[in-house]
Amino acid sequence: MKLRNITGQQAVQLCAMAGIFLVSGCASLRLETARNNYEARQFGKAVEELTPIPKGNTDRVLFLMERGMAQQAACNYKASTRDWLDAMRAAETLDLYSVSGDTPSLLINDNVMPFRGAPYERVLLHTFAAKSYMAMGEMNDAAVEARNIVHLLENRDGFPDDPYSRYLAGLCFEITGDYESAAFQYRQISNMVHGATIEASGLIRSTSSPAPGKTPPAKTTELVCLIGLGTLRNSFQAEPAYVEVYMDDRCLGRSYKFTDVELLWEQTRARLQLRRETKKLLRIALKEWLLHEADKKNNDFAAALSILLYGLEIEDVRRWETLPTWLHIARIQCPPDLRSYRLVVRDVNGAVMEEQIIDKNVIKCGNTRISFSRGLNRNYAIGRNKQ
Q: Strand, coil or helix: what is 181?
């Protein structure tokens, strides 16, 4: 169909096709409702809202990411890994960041292209899948995900590193007996965590505490707390400073922030800025050519097409929104018979922001105890305190 011979009916069909692209590229009402249910800790309702996963929708990978998170929060670990593995396989068939081959996005906008996820999100898919495998006691499968994490981070093409994911990969190697690989990952992030130094053993030591002596300490029972705080959907939340771990009234230690996911998002967008500008210039050139050809035959249609094409010039801001904003880790000595403990989230002034009792799903791996938790307090004071 040549534009110079376009009929009124064909023009309507073209506009309708563009409208379909716009609708399919936007997050659906189901997705938004599910996210709201997740924040309200209605994890079962969030899962129901995202079931079934749409097969032909451009947001299929995003739906799987979000439902997997709700499944994990509901302790449906097998279902969460199934969703995330499906998301990984679907993402592997796409190339969101290729300028060539994206004809629909060149004509309309990037929202019409299937969502694959930013590099940091693809890393975190494996990170959270590894946590579900650990919760099920499937440590070898967790180690497989750890190798996937390392592969992606070692080939990240200038995108930001993720100390939390590296530490978790090291932990997976450690608990499966691959101490050399574990030590390598720990050394990679030895000086990347504010206020802490990561030893080759995985020990998290405050930078203000004295360096360990030459004689390694006797092996004791350790608790590793993998803690997610906040939500990417709440841009006005205050940043917690640290999380203390209590057994009864005794403080066993505190957490350190390993990764700021919002910062990963910002650094990724900055990295993609040149590619976005290049694609935008190509898109404008193509649209101008189409409008020029349309104007030769039908001035009214050309005017309508101009409004449509440029009205759809919207930046793609889709992302995995149920991810925590901040990822903390605490590694501390604990009694061998530890069955429960209390987390106390504090702000920069030491005031309590949230408390949580952890009394289940403490994973035993030799002398190491592993657990993970999520703080979703939406009543944090307004304002972010960057450290």
A: helix
Tokens of 154: 């070692």
Indicate whether this model's pTM tops 0.85: no
Dist. CA 192–CA 164, nearest whole Å? 10
pLDDT tens digit sequence for 121-147:
999 999 999 999 999 999 999 999 999
CB-based burial, 158-184: b 16+ in 10 Å, e otherwise? ebbbbbbbbbbbbbbbbbbebeebbbb
> For 312-360, how does the pLDDT look when each residue is reduced to its tens digit (9 = 90+)?
445 677 899 999 999 999 999 999 888 899 999 999 999 999 999 998 8
Mean pLDDT for the chain?
81
**Per-position DSSP letters for 331-381, written without gaps between them:** EEE--TT---EEEEEE-TTS-EEEEEEE-S--EEETTEEEEEEEE--TTPP
**DSSP-derived secondary structure letter, 237:** B
Give the containing element (helix H, strand E) for 62: helix 60-73
- Compute CA distances 239 → 193, 195, 233, whole Å: 16, 16, 14
The separation between the first and the last C-alpha atoms of the chain, rounded to the nearest angstrom, is 58
Could you tell me which residues come within 8 angstroms of residue 46 by beta carbon, excluding any fewer than 6 positions away? 34, 35, 37, 38, 66, 67, 70
Give the domains, in start order, of the chain with CATH numbers. Answer: 11-268+317-375 (1.25.40.10)
